[in-house]
Design a protein that fits this description.
Layout lengths: L4 E3 L5 E6 L2 E2 L7 E8 L2 E12 L2 H4 L11 E8 L14 E3 L4 H11 L16 H29 L4 H13 L5 H9 L3 H6 L4 H11 L12 H17 L20 H12 L5 H8 L3 H7 L11 E3 L2 E2 L9 H23 L2 H13 L6 H8 L7 H15 L8 H11 L9
Parallel strand pairs: 5-6, 6-7
Antiparallel strand pairs: 1-2, 2-4, 3-4, 4-5, 8-9
Length: 421
Amino acid sequence: MFGRHLRDEDGEDVLVIDPGKLNTDSGPDFFNSKVRIGDTEWAGNVEIHVKASDWYRHRHQDDPAYDNVILHVVGVSDRKIVRHDGRKIPQVTVALPEDFFRTYATLSTPGADIRCAAFLPRLSSLEMTDWLESLAVERIQKKGEWVLATHRECGADWEQTAFVTLARGLGFGLNGEPFEMLARSIPLRILHHHSDNPLQLQALLFGQASMLDSSLHIFDEYYQLLCREYFFLARKYGLRPMRPGLWKYARTRPQNFPHRRIALLARACEGGFSLFSALKEGIGDERRLREAFGWKLGGYWHSHFSFDVEARAVSDALSQASVTLLLINVAAPIVYAAGAMRGDSDMAEKALDLLSSLPAEANGIIRMWSQLGVNARDALRTQALIHLRKEYCDARKCLYCRFGHQALRKSALSADGFRPI
């Protein structure tokens, strides 16, 4: 924060060679630090206090854990500190400018959604790119952890894992959770048993989704046929449907109703579900990956948005924009997780390459960053910006964000005597 060159209260130059490791438990604040004081190099721990007298107020003089402190950094030097053997501990006083406190207050108190917005123009392109690249990796790692957890819950079956991940992806945010619940409610092996019968596949999935009730749509022959098939199959396999009322329709265009997405999920199971195999073989070839999501609806769903609601001039396949979202939220995380689990760094790297080759997403979060002058050229950058907003800005973790840290550091360095090295 203040550069590597400091000066202690005796006038000795202090060079911070290695700040060490931040300690989040009891004991000194930094472990295994290395500093050079004058001509002597020291290795040990560093303690930080607002006031030097806090050392005694916290009774560190009675705690052997503090015997190896090599440097005491304070905001106010109101007392000299000595070890229990009487030797003085070198002490550095850091004077903070008013600008630092104003910046800290801005970042640490409730306010605008992006509290560092006024500071962003002061960031260099290198500082911004470096943090956003790290955030992109953070995001795919988090998604990969979810995939691996799902993989364990699915008995280490990669196709079942891909089925659950795809289902959640087809929810496109609004219905992500109910779609995931649907996929988890029925083993893929049951769907494989009926992979040559589209009607039974749809009956199983619509029935598990709690969308079938023979007292409804009594003049819709297809619907009534689904009800009869599900009644038989549910008893055969001991299936229990989801709790009704979970599906959301607000602000959803008819062509995006969950009915058509469920029909598409059933279509993906025709002939046997093999998305993971397709992703593994197609990684590195965007055209092949897009083809892996190229299912088309037919029959009843060629002309319906939902049961008894006819469709006109609607595409039977997912739009290219929807496929792009599935590549981002389904393909890339699955490939990354599989590579990470197998220790295949090349496979994991291809997942990141896929994101960098895809067009930037268009949503409210990305538009907000664009208005602040932070633009995205590809999906890797948009994933970083989404992660930044959700995991740092919304979580009020500004002090853990590199943008926030840079704002504090530049404010701190405005004091005389402190310059970055």
